[in-house]
Amino acid sequence: MQGDEIADLIGRVALGDRRAFVALYNQTGPKLFSICLRILKDRTEAEEALQEVYISIWQRAHSFSVASGSSSAWLAAIARNRSIDALRARRPVADELDTVYDLADAGPDPEMQTVTKDEGRRIDTCMEELEADRAVAVKRAYVEGLSYQELADQFGVPLNTMRTWLRRSLLKLRECMER
């Protein structure tokens, strides 16, 4: 059957012509069933999906426009979409939720969070024992990621002096943390 004939049948179905609907089903049913079967891979589900496809065609035939595209493409899109909907409906939502609950939380547990906070407080306390400019240099080097040369330029000291500042500051921090 030609596309014009199918489009004509769809137009008649839009007017409520039951004979046109039967003719449309007889002409396009095998093709649309094959689309449903290919997607669902189950004959019973494909038959049920095909039934829903033709219900949809009966209800939406008035929305088909020859200017908008091929009648066969319109019918195939309805069959494909109904089949995909049926495929999605196969998996119960509860199963998905159960698997989500089984996933382990990748974040630290409350005990680790407390330990981390305590260590952070200890580091802050030890940083206060350093001279102010040394503490700022350590933060900029190890938190902000500035290089020794960038720090030396910012503080207006030679490169080797900056290295000495950082090395001595880290030694003081280690001593403080071990107490």
Automatic annotation (TrEMBL):
Matching entries from Gene3D superfamilies are given as: 1.10.1740.10, Winged helix-like DNA-binding domain superfamily/Winged helix DNA-binding domain
Enumerate the UniProt keywords alphabetically: Sigma factor, Transcription, Transcription regulation
Q: Where is the RNA polymerase sigma factor 70 region 4 type domain?
A: 121-173
Coiled coil where? none
What single Pfam family name could you report for this chain, choosing any that match?
Sigma70_r2
InterPro entries noted in UniProt: RNA_pol_sigma-70-like (IPR039425), RNA_pol_sigma-70_dom (IPR014284), RNA_pol_sigma70_r2 (IPR007627), RNA_pol_sigma70_r4_t2 (IPR013249), RNA_pol_sigma_r2 (IPR013325), RNA_pol_sigma_r3/r4-like (IPR013324), WH-like_DNA-bd_sf (IPR036388)
- Keyword Acetylation recorded: no
Q: For the RNA polymerase sigma-70 region domain, which residue ranges apply?
A: 24-91
Which CDD domains did the record assign?
Sigma70_r4
Origin: domain of life: Bacteria
Q: Give the record's family classification.
A: Belongs to the sigma-70 factor family. ECF subfamily.
Q: What is this protein called?
A: Sigma-70 family RNA polymerase sigma factor
